[in-house]
Amino acid sequence: MKATRPQSSLAAALVGTLAFTTANARAADPLPSWNDGKAKQSILDFVAKVTKSGSPDFVPVAERIATFDNDGCLWAEQPMYFQFFFALDRVKALAPQHPEWKEQEPFASLLKGDVKGALAGGEGAMLEIVMATHAGMTTEEFDAIVKDWVATAKHPTTRRPYTEMVYQPMLELLAYLRDNGFKTFIVSGGGIDFMRPWTEPVYGIPPEQVIGSSIKTKFDLRYGKPVLVRLPELNFIDDKAGKPVGIHQHIGRRPIAAFGNSDGDLQMLQWTAAGNGPRFCLLVHHTDAEREWAYDRESSIGRLDTALDEAAQRRWTVVDMKEDWKCVFAFAQP
Amino acid sequence: MKATRPQSSLAAALVGTLAFTTANARAADPLPSWNDGKAKQSILDFVAKVTKSGSPDFVPVAERIATFDNDGCLWAEQPMYFQFFFALDRVKALAPQHPEWKEQEPFASLLKGDVKGALAGGEGAMLEIVMATHAGMTTEEFDAIVKDWVATAKHPTTRRPYTEMVYQPMLELLAYLRDNGFKTFIVSGGGIDFMRPWTEPVYGIPPEQVIGSSIKTKFDLRYGKPVLVRLPELNFIDDKAGKPVGIHQHIGRRPIAAFGNSDGDLQMLQWTAAGNGPRFCLLVHHTDAEREWAYDRESSIGRLDTALDEAAQRRWTVVDMKEDWKCVFAFAQP
Lengths: 334, 334
Known about the structure:
By secondary structure, chain A is an alpha/beta fold. Chain A has 13 helices and 7 strands. A 7-stranded mixed sheet of chain A has the order 4-3-2-1-5-6-7, sandwiched between helices. In chain A, helix 9 (192-203) links the parallel strand 2 (183-191) and strand 3.
């Protein structure tokens, strides 16, 4: 794993050449990190079909809505959802202001590095961790906290910034869809305000096209200055049956294409598939223990079980990461 | 008031010429229905400033977010909010299925034409009317109901379809902002699913850029077909202090320009004005009893009182409809 940042003008010139070559390659093959095969072909066929004017499958640009799960679909989610690492780092950062946490679960276990013990409290414990780290500040303060974390935190096994743990083939897919008039949205169980500070530079997806779970906020005037304060109260869980609800609430139009990787995405894919006209549903199957991780039916994170069965029955596209992707992360180009 | 639909090929040709002339006029003056004056000039100055690349006030396209109230700002709201006329029409349409309404308030009074009596029950009565007419069906069914109503219902005094009761100067303003790279959003106290079926053809604003009040929905499988069922339970009130909350929830980015007409828009304007860099806030003041309606501080609908004072103090643009607008509705061109 080599650093790719140019250190000299020679390097800059080389990168320039590379960029030119890449642009040319993209014109020839819009999905260069995808191996030729059924999965890649199904994407190309769908896009060709809905963009061919005059064809019975043509879809007007305004209706070309594509929704993407985030964790395990656009970026990795192992060994834990990255937002949970964020929460852990925040607990450590906030601990000096909370001496009581030394005696108080789930914080006491967390601070001793015992994540399993901390999570023994189940959903209640998880909620306490989320509220202690995600609420109690203004939206602008939280935005700055997330940006700072994203700029400095490193993944525990790859030691890469989390925003480099994004799937190169999916970045190409996002760009390819947008080049063909699609509006790309994220529809994730993750926190909406945890994603928005970085999805535009990393995925090219602006904040108004990010849908996620949220806590409530409250408008307040502080010394005459309007602020939105983040409250320790759940607003919406954008997972499973919540995903079509979130899509309806934010977009108000049914997607024609949906991309996921776990049972949490099943209802989003069902909702997408049930519309009239051409539809495209895809699941990323994590099959590559060497370049990424291999997990599915038994995993507590990103479990893919019922949705995998339904994909087979309904002939949705299933991406076999090991077979279908030439490379997984840009920092590990073959 | 003459019909403007072409009835013959001659008429079509004339309309073609007119369209050409209008396009030319728009190039010369992007806001032809606005009289020259302070209000118009303040809009032109703001747009020139934020779009001039290299200027200290330049705003990148991605951040050119403009939010518009709907009732009384983009379309009329007298003698009652139009969504309330929709609810009344729905009560009448549904009455045969609800024989009990003959004896049950607020429906009994409504069905006798006694709106005042029906609303004597205050917010509780209003909520009952909303839930009886807006919940209990799927989102697709509700969409069809709204589209049908919009296509057939007529305003009680002008006898025009409600979607013709939109302000021509504001349509020009929306188009002008979009021509200059702005993304235009609606942020209304009205129902999000009541607006979305028609905002795209009428205002050029797609469903994903409409923010409004909502009831909860629930994902369900009906005979294997996924549906979203509208529940008789409030989800969000997008009014007053709710507007910045709704903006944050849906857009995740602070607008640089906001347009309203009542005290219900005050917090949206405050939130917009409080951002860094150039900001633009505008209130439409209903001063034209002849061409529209004249009302402000004492009105129960669209009250403009505190916000009018704050606009004066903060030098926000206040549009005097009578003085600043050459025409109000396209069907009543001078």
